[in-house]
Structure formats: C-alpha cells, structure tokens
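Take a minute with the sequence and fold tokens given here and flag any structure token that looks odd. Thanks in advance.
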Amino acid sequence: MPEQHRPEIELLRAAYASFNARDIDAALPLMTADVAWPRAFKGGFVRGPEAVGAYWAEQWGEIDPHVEPMSFHPKDDGSILVEVHQVVRDLAGRVLAEERVGHRFTFRLGLIQAMEVGPYPSLDDTAGSIS
C-alpha cells in the first residue's frame, strides 16, 4: 500500500477536516478512550475523547483556529509527524498567529492515542515526507 494511503494518514486527514469543520461528533470516534491531547491553547493535557471535545468547545468560544496538514512523515516507531499550517484568529476574524507547527500522533488499534504539539520540525527529522 502506498504510504500516502496508509490508514493512519487517512484517519488524520479525517480528524483535521472534522476539527476545521467544528464537527466534534465526527472527530472523537477517531480517538482511543484514553487519548492524551495537549491543551496547546491553555497548557497541560486532557485525557479521553469527552475531555478533548470539551476543550475544543472552550477553545472555539475564545479563538478561531484552522489547522491545515501540509505533509505527513511516518516514523519507524509507528508515529506520524504532521507539518501543519496553523492560523489562529480572534472571534472578530483578526489574525492572532500564523505559523508552521508540528503535530506528532501515536496510534493504538487504528485510533489516535496521543498528540504532541511543537515547533516544526523540532519534534523530529523530516525523512520520509508525504504530502
């Protein structure tokens, strides 16, 4: 199977699309019951899909983030590093931040188990890029 069609990458594409559409109900089933998700907007982590959904709802009440995956970098440990173009606006539409960031995902049983956020590409090297 070509790497760009790996099930994990298709899962991530669906997760990003659901996040950007503000479709919590479509995004949460893509995660394990004990998913660890960073509270990048507030600090720390939340655990479990319900906590992720509550965090997102809180976040969307204060800012309007849009994250567009630019490339996917599968790693030998099974994780995937995603290069993301992130634009954060206030609720009036003014750009607060626009940057390239890295999201590293780990998986269990075909679902997202954890996500980390960091400067891209400092989360890892970029060998094996898939756009």
Remarks:
- Residues 7-20 form the longest helix (14 residues).
- Strands lie at 31-38, 45-47, 64-74, 80-89, 95-108, 111-119.
- The radius of gyration is 14 Å.
